[in-house]
Structures are given as structure tokens and as C-alpha cells.
Amino acid sequence: MNENIFSKIVNNKIKSKIVYRDKYVTAFNDINPKCPVHIIIVPNIYIKNLNYINKSNILLLGKMLFIASKLAKKNNIDKSGYRIIINCNKNSGQEINYLHLHILGGCYLGKIINLK
User: Fold this and answer.
1) Continuous segment of H or E residues that includes residue 18
2) What are phi and psi of 39, to 5 degrees?
3) Of the residues 62, 71, 114, 115, which has the maximum number of CB atoms within 10 A of its CB?
4) Which residues are tagged catalytic?
5) pLDDT tens-digit map of 11-27
6) Residue-wise pLDDT tens digits, 59-70
7) In whole angstroms, what is the distance from residue 21 CA to residue 33 CA?
8) Would the pLDDT of 91 be above 90?
9) Is residue 48 classed exposed, middle or buried when 0-12, 13-18 and 19+ CB atoms within 10 A define those classes?
């Protein structure tokens, strides 16, 4: 497995503010939040990014999105709105090579940039 900050959090090698954990996923507060609510959800198995998803991971992705919606409700951002972001590779802004999604909310996020 690629040893990075997310794998260390999943394996309890470094401390983090865990907000949810089960046998499939771990969710924790981002250490450099961009909004009042900024939670990271990672699978408990190492997957580099979306390009490495295979048929055996399909349910895991659904689980990540399901937990994201539950955490949005728990953090009272389900009504005002929130954004889910999954970056894939360098040009998208992926900084850590470990599949993860961001839940951002609690503030106005604006429109997605115009990609002309």
C-alpha cells in the first residue's frame, strides 16, 4: 500500500478528527478547511484515484456518497447546500494519491468555473 497521510489516518498511525468510520470508509475533518464544514471521506482500502476503480469497488463508491449525504445532514448543510468533489490526477488538483472525496458546505460556494 502507498503510505501517505490518508493511509496513516485509516490505519491509526496519526491522529485526526474522525467523524465517521466503519469497515469500508473513514471520514475526518480536513486539516486546512475551505468552508465551515470540510470533511474528507476515504475508502479503508488503498485506491490511487478514480482511474483505478474496478467492478469490485462499485459498491464502495456508493457507500462513500451515501455517507457523504448522511454527514451533510448531521452537519446541517443538507438544506442550504453542499458540494462533493473528487479530484483525479495532477491537473484536477489531486494532491494526495489516495481516492478521496471532499464534502464542502456551510458557506456560499458559488458557481463552478466556466469551462469554455
Assistant:
1) strand 18-21
2) -115, 140
3) 71
4) 100
5) 999 999 999 999 999 99
6) 999 999 999 999
7) 20
8) no
9) middle
- Evaluate whether 60 touches 13 at the Cβ level (below 8 Å): no
**What nine digits make up the cell of 28?**
475526518
**Nearest-angstrom CA–CA distance, 26 and 91:** 25
Q: Are 49 and 85 in contact (CB under 8 A)?
A: no
pLDDT(1) > 60: no
Could you tell me which residues come within 8 angstroms of residue 3 by beta carbon, excluding any fewer than 6 positions away?
none
Q: DSSP readout, 40-94? A: EEEESS---SGGG--GGGHHHHHHHHHHHHHHHHHTT-TTT-EEEE---SGGGT-
What pLDDT, on a 0 to 100 scale, did the predictor assign at position 113? 73
Exposure letters 101-113 (e unless 16+ CB within 10 A, then b): bbbbbbeeeeeee
- Output the CA torsion sign for 35, 65, 24, 48: negative
Amino acid at 2: N
By residue count, the chain amounts to 116
